[in-house]
Write a structure and sequence with these properties.
By secondary structure, the protein is α/β, with parallel strands linked by helices. It contains 13 helices and 11 strands.
């Protein structure tokens, strides 16, 4: 862990460097006042999450709080929920063009910028939470991410992980592939591409607009995250069938993106603080989601009568077959192909270990409960 004594030595408390350029001349104290006061700066973080949302929304707040705490308030980060400063799906552009300093969101929302962005959140039948952390941190993923986002003037880090997500909420049961034909579902990223390949229709809707869309019948089904977040958005009141497993997001990594000019203006110590804050929240969130999903699944089933369902085998098989094609189509050339190749190589490598470790352990534990 980085402590304040180390940060002082590294210059994070504003002893010269680029941070001074951001001080407001009209409010800069006289010479001789502490550097903490002299170089204080305020940054805005926009998010793709509804206001007050547990888990995802709290992750963004945690990143902000930890940056402020570890810099003794030299860097103050104010967090804005989706729609407060910019709409949810405009967060990336706001940070890229400098109208906001940071964002917290899901990288697959930026697929229009590059077909490779979903690989840094989740892709159908892709990596689990532990696997995507392994790839990004140790398998070359971060370097490729830096190259991709650098094209748009953004520096991004993992800054939360929801773990394995559920397959979604449905108004009607899914008994065969025919039930997917014509289905209107809120599902972003490559999961939406898979649904379209099977005859359904995918619609991108920010989290804060999903419930009303279900209520009015604009959509027939939705995925969001898992029992914890889904409970607070109340989907169970409109769609009683809760399906799993979530083929589309087996371990969703969320990101904190920073305007590149802002990132470059930080001292090395400040950069270390921001990176450490993101890493800390990334690991904290995975444990929190694992526990809270368990608590809220029990509440949904036993207090609200939610009907748990599993996708029929033929549906899962068809989803898997479509997923391979969708993933491959997103990495045909350039940086997209290099990201795809790196992801697939690491997935193949880690899948072998995951199967004989976690997979075998879960099967043995359940068989002997």
């Amino acid at each position: 862990m980085i402590n304040r004594r180390n940060l002082v030595g590294a210059g994070v408390l504003g002893l010269g460097g680029a941070a001074a350029a951001f001080a407001n001349p009209s409010t800069t104290p006289l010479a001789g006042t502490p550097a903490i006061t002299r170089n204080r700066r305020k940054l805005n973080m926009v998010t793709t999450w509804p206001k007050g949302l547990p888990g995802l929304g709290e992750a963004a707040e945690r990143v902000a709080r930890r940056i402020m705490a570890e810099t003794d308030g030299v860097i103050e980060v104010k967090v804005f929920a989706a729609g407060e400063l910019v709409p949810a799906f405009e967060c990336f552009d706001a940070v890229a063009n400098g109208s906001a300093d940071m964002y917290h969101g899901a990288e697959y929302y930026w697929t229009a910028k590059s077909s490779a962005y979903p690989f840094f959140t989740a892709v159908p039948f892709g990596m689990t939470a532990q696997e995507i952390m392994g790839w990004i941190d140790f398998g070359g993923g971060q370097e490729l991410w830096d190259e991709l986002s650098g094209q748009f003037g953004v520096k991004a880090f993992q800054a939360a992980n929801s773990g394995h997500q559920m397959g979604g909420w449905f108004r009607k049961e899914i008994n065969s592939l025919d039930d997917l034909v014509g289905l209107k579902m809120r599902i972003p990223g490559q999961g939406g591409d898979v649904l379209r390949a099977l005859g359904g229709s995918s619609i991108a809707i920010p989290g804060g607009e999903i419930y009303q869309s279900l209520q009015t019948g604009s959509i027939d089904a939705t995925e969001w995250v898992g029992p914890w977040n889904d409970y607070y958005l109340g989907f169970y009141r409109e769609a009683p069938y809760y399906y799993g497993p979530g083929f589309h997001e087996p371990g969703s990594s969320l990101a904190c993106g920073i305007n590149r000019r802002v990132w470059d203006s930080f001292s090395p110590g400040e950069q270390a603080v921001v990176k450490a804050a993101c890493e800390s929240v990334n690991h904290t969130s995975l444990g929190e989601f694992t526990y809270q999903n368990s608590v809220h699944l029990d509440m949904l089933v036993n207090e609200h009568g939610v009907q748990l369902r599993s996708f029929p085998p033929e549906v899962v098989t068809a989803m898997a077959e479509a997923a391979w094609d969708v993933r491959a189509a997103s990495g045909k050339d350039g940086i997209e192909k290099r990201i795809y190749d790196s992801f697939e190589k690491s997935l193949k490598l880690m899948r072998g270990w995951s199967t004989i470790s976690d997979g075998a352990y879960y099967a043995a534990r359940d068989a002997n409960k």
